[in-house]
Amino acid sequence: MSATELKLQVFLCHASQDKLTAKELYEALNAEAWIDPWLDKAKILPGQDWRTVIEKAVEDSDAVIVCISTNSVGKEGFIQKEIRYAYDIALEKPEGTIFLIPLRLEEVTPPRGLRNLQWVDYFGSEKQDHFRSLLEALKLRYEQRLPVKFEEQLQKQQEEKERQEYEELKRKEQETVRRTMQERERKEAKERAKFEAERSADHEMAAENERYSREKSDTDIDDIIPKNHTATVIAFVTVLAAFCFCIFLALLWQYGDLIFRTP
User: What pTM was estimated for this model as a whole?
Assistant: First the structure.
């Protein structure tokens, strides 16, 4: 934002009975491109804490116009607190600063705390001339405040820029950490998948070896069993033949005479 785009923040302090005149003044000031007037009826939104909003508006204002009438001078209530609050802030300003501007709406003596300040009338036949005098006072305040507001605006912009840069850096760091963690998780998942595949392959190979060994063992047994069976049969037949031969000899010995006797 350039210096020419900055506006003078002007707070309008008035009694509720003077709201019509305050509204007229607000519209007249709002018509000036370099002034941003503040009026409770125009600025406070439904549901807001109006006391807090008003105090904040007074604190942020560059100038406060106090509308003085019999209503505001003789009335008890928040209007007196507004005036005192604005007066306390004015005491913090450097000497010669135009901050509080008493604006009489009728013939009335300003409150004691404002009597040492030059007031301006906003009534009668010279109302428009007095309004131009008010604008001159506000213009002087604008010239006083403009360099400071411009520096403050630059400072805010710089702080906002630094904040955005910090948040962007933080976001990038978080993104880097997130990507690093994702890459690590992908790498770990890949290593786990590789390990599971190798273990599965080892299990399959072990099962295949076991199956091969079992089949080979069965084949060897099948090869051995027929040979042993044949040898057993031969041995059995041999023993049986020898046994029969022995019996034959025994019978021949005992009954040979009968067999070979000549008639």
Answer: 0.57
